[in-house]
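Entry 14. Ran structure prediction on the chain below.
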Amino acid sequence: MDPQENIMRPPAAETGDAATRSVLRRYYGVWAAYSLAGGFLYGVYPIFLRTRGLSEFEINSVLAIYFAVTFLTDIPTGAFADALGRRRSFALGCALRSLAFMVYFFAYHYPMFVLGETIDGIGTTFCNGSIDAWGVDALDQAGYRGLKDRLFWRISQLMNLGFMLAAIAGAAVANINIAWPWLMGASGYFLCAWLIAPLMREANPRHADVALRALPSVVKERVVEGFRQAFRTRTFLLLTLAQGIFFAAWAPYWLQWPQFFTIRYGIGIWIVGWIFALFTIARMVGAEFMIHSSIERPRRARWLSVLAVAVAGLMYAAGSLGARTTLTLLVFCGFSICAGALMPFAQSWINEEIHAETRATLLSFRSTCETFGGSIGLLLTGVVADRAGLQASWRLAGLLSLLALPCYLTLALRARATRGSALAEAVGVR
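Output, structure tokens:
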């Protein structure tokens, strides 16, 4: 079969098998519901913290605490998912996130926000990796064939759609009461734990037959093995390093743009929801473009290199436009298109480089690198923003984004060397 044919077919059509289609529907449904639950706070989060009396430094430090907690707990909770089941991990994570959102709803003092972020960070790590680990394994067991690039681009679109709808609703409700979006998010995560988690049925379910006293040693073994495999797999390590760099560059931007456009346009919090929707549509356009592009495996690294240069240039440009607010908005739309193409592309490749038994652990390793990068980025660009303004921090973010380029260029060189060796071998056989 021609490999191009695999790439161009819709995911469900690659096997024509009812089991595969069932897994795909549930995989899409879980991601859509989880994204919808978390999207109510998108855009209004930093504004809410400001209205509750937090300074800019406190806002940054609260989010840094969230990243620090996820950094410390991501790999152990990923090992938990590998050991005792992805569905249990997801349900527990959603329950914890629901509790964290309720803490935030009642919080007025800095320690309460720290408590909420700590609980939310732990809950996030129980969910990180568990959905993809379950979905990819279930698809493989159902007989899914071919590359999963288009699958992850489609999931990215569904996530963005959920984020967009929830962000618009959350911003509209925030105009009435800035705290109500937290209640909406708490309800959404509770429903995910109750109604959505059962969709994550596993063909070979993991049974909780590990004694409670033995669980720490089981988790430790999986963590150690996860680190070994991560550093042993060069492609996985380079892709993960690039993701961490992007998070370092972009984490402050996610926190800053709602404040920037709310102040510049000055027409109410509701505008943030619609701007978020615009950026989301742009990310979906980027993913759709890549879905309909036929990219062979050896050319992946070159495409990622081009996209890395594009996002870096656009981020730097947005920080160089001064008072031209609408033009800045358009540049960020271009940035979102490129990011929407790049991130699921890299995510798909990462998933293909890891084994089923340690998938959740290694996906959590990747998430750990991302959150560590985000923490460093918040501290670094936060200082720049306080001294030179938000747009100066965006210029720095553009320069930081370029640091991911050597990772992709190294992968491109390796692919070229591998292709050359294969060609030489083929010529020798002839």
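Residues 16-202+211-429 form a domain with the Growth Hormone; Chain: A; fold (CATH 1.20.1250.20). Will compare against last week's run tomorrow.
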